[in-house]
């Protein structure tokens, strides 16, 4: 973990008792805290038709966050490319990169980030959008390249802007794509860890050097909750379990307070699913989380950057968790 970078992902959830404005205020406040801590980057997800997530207008939230922070890189985790014309994405991110040089990232996903009915309302071509993902990445690369300044269709002011592109994924398909294109790869282990080990290995073994990278750059995204004691972290993690089960139930409820009796709010099957997710999360004291991360790397292989999601109801304790995680990694160094 000597050179491991540390970053964060935010889906901009609404906590129980909050409204949308509160969630957006929390988003900025957390970004400022991570900026002060020296986190590498802060990414915002794209989700649609989700009453408990305020991350539908992702580019607007990225710009808003950039305006209220000083150093941290801010980007998308990710822009769901089937929902958007590459030209518009290039124009938006090229504009942000003009306003905030060397601080903008563009993570790209091929899922719609919503249910299929809403996806049909979003997509430019609801039948082919997902399958055109590789070609649309190339289209974006063209819009950002200096050579595009000579083309007839140009994404002003994107041409020539050095905006890093990242391939997001939760399967081995995305690993193949990122490796083939020689782009950095981000695996969504926080919600889909099933193919994580294979995807990391495939990306590393099949990586083809490009103008962007001469060797693989692997980011792994995990759930992380760090507290003073293991017991407190497990208690706080009951919120994460409720978030996950809410999604499985299709209820999409606001983030709930933690509970001492998780079994009372979940079925036995749901409780077991939550425990399975805990086993691929970083949950515990600083010492425990360091041990978990070392064990994770021994099993899944090393990577370059850890991106974490922390579903914690109390915002002050959420900030403390990010501080403790940073301290744990720094202490390791």
UniProtKB/TrEMBL annotation:
Domain Luciferase-like: 19-297
Pfam families noted in UniProt: Bac_luciferase
Residues that span the membrane, as ranges: none
Signal peptide: none
Family: To bacterial alkanal monooxygenase alpha and beta chains.
This protein's name: LLM class flavin-dependent oxidoreductase
């Amino acid at each position: 973990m000597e050179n491991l970078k540390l970053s964060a992902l935010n889906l901009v959830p609404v906590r129980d008792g909050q409204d949308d404005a509160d969630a957006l205020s929390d988003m900025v406040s957390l970004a400022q805290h991570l900026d002060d801590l020296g986190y590498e980057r802060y990414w915002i997800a794209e989700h649609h038709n989700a009453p408990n997530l305020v991350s539908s207008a992702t580019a607007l939230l990225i710009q808003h966050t950039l305006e209220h922070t000083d150093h941290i890189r801010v980007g998308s985790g990710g822009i769901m490319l089937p929902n958007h014309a590459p030209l518009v994405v290039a124009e938006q991110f090229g504009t942000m990169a003009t306003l905030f040089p060397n601080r903008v990232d563009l993570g790209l996903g091929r899922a719609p980030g919503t249910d299929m009915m809403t996806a049909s309302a979003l997509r430019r071509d609801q039948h082919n959008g997902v399958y055109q993902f590789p070609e649309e990445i190339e289209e974006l690369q063209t819009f950002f390249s200096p050579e595009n300044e000579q083309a007839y269709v140009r994404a002003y002011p994107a041409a020539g802007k050095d905006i890093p592109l990242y391939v997001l994924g939760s399967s081995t398909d995305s690993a193949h794509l990122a490796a083939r294109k020689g782009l950095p790869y981000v695996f969504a282990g926080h919600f889909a860890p099933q193919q994580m080990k294979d995807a990391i290995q495939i990306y590393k073994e099949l990586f083809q050097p490009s103008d962007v990278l001469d060797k693989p750059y692997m980011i792994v995204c995990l759930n992380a909750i760090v507290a003073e004691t293991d017991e407190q972290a497990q208690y706080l993690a009951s919120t994460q379990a409720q978030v996950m089960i809410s999604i499985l139930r299709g209820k999409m409820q606001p983030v709930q307070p933690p509970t001492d009796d998780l079994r009372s709010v979940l079925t036995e099957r749901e409780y077991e699913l939550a425990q399975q997710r805990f086993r691929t999360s970083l949950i515990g004291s600083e010492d425990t989380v360091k041990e978990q991360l070392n064990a994770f790397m021994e099993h899944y292989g090393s990577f370059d950057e850890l991106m974490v999601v922390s579903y914690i109801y109390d915002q002050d304790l959420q900030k403390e968790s990010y501080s403790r995680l940073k301290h744990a990694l720094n202490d390791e160094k």
